[in-house]
Amino acid sequence: MGQSPSQPGPAGTKFRVIGAGMSRTGTKTLNEALSILLDGPVHDSGIQSLGGPPEHIQTWLEIMELAPKSRSFSDEKKMDYLFSSILEGYVATMDCPAATLTPEIMRLYPDALVLCTTRSQESWWRSMEYMNGMMGTWYLPFVVMWLRKSQAYGVWRQRFQQIMIWRYGDDRILEGTKQKHEEHLRQVVPPEKLFFYNVSEGWEPLCKILGVPVPNQPFPHNNNANDARKVFHEHVIAGLASWVFVLAAVTMVIHYASSWTSRWAV
């Protein structure tokens, strides 16, 4: 949850980068930087799978359910089809759950670079633990259940948990998950296609990786802890407001039903 979903570009837009960094490693910043450098929209899988168009939400839920169970050639082909249906028109993917499914996306886009944002373990875990504290609350799926763009969050969280267990042996993102994830990338991605990048380094190393000129504009900075907290509070407030509306509507229905029953009783 957070920020706005992007719209795909025209058919035939070249897919060039798999953003494989774990959440809270500068993925939102890289998202914006890639959209500038590659002149096209980036598919942020966290945003699209929770707040995107209904067809994207549903397709991501199907992908997340199928991935840990995929065993056969037909399963792989179905995964390829599902990915192609939501990634057409984008220049890159970003964030989780896509980052955890890097090998599966590589199968569809073998020429794409795998770009993993990273940061120091200590600063990453401090940021991730803070995010886990907000997004892992027991009440959040209940509070946002009437918000159209957040209704899938409970199912999303369950299926992401299954992906985490399948891929890393953790039932959620823990202190050691980033290290496991980056080691997994080293095992499954050809060395010549795998790049690690810290967004604090700015334009030059990123442009060198992509083989593009350095743009004449400031490097973006997006989605810090304050941004995340603001988005979380906005969703909670909107969710509580939706509950007020729903309860008011139910009360009115009960009132009118009671009045109608009383008239017939007389």
TrEMBL record:
The chain crosses the membrane at residues 236-257. Pfam families: Sulfotransfer_4 (PF17784). InterPro entries: P-loop_NTPase, Sulfotransfer_4. The keyword Mitochondrion does not apply. Keywords: Membrane, Transmembrane, Transmembrane helix. The keyword Membrane applies. SUPFAM superfamilies: P-loop containing nucleoside triphosphate hydrolases (SSF52540). PANTHER family: P-LOOP CONTAINING NUCLEOSIDE TRIPHOSPHATE HYDROLASE PROTEIN (PTHR36978:SF3), P-LOOP CONTAINING NUCLEOTIDE TRIPHOSPHATE HYDROLASE (PTHR36978). This is Nad dependent epimerase dehydratase protein. The lineage of its organism: Eukaryota, Fungi, Dikarya, Ascomycota, Pezizomycotina.
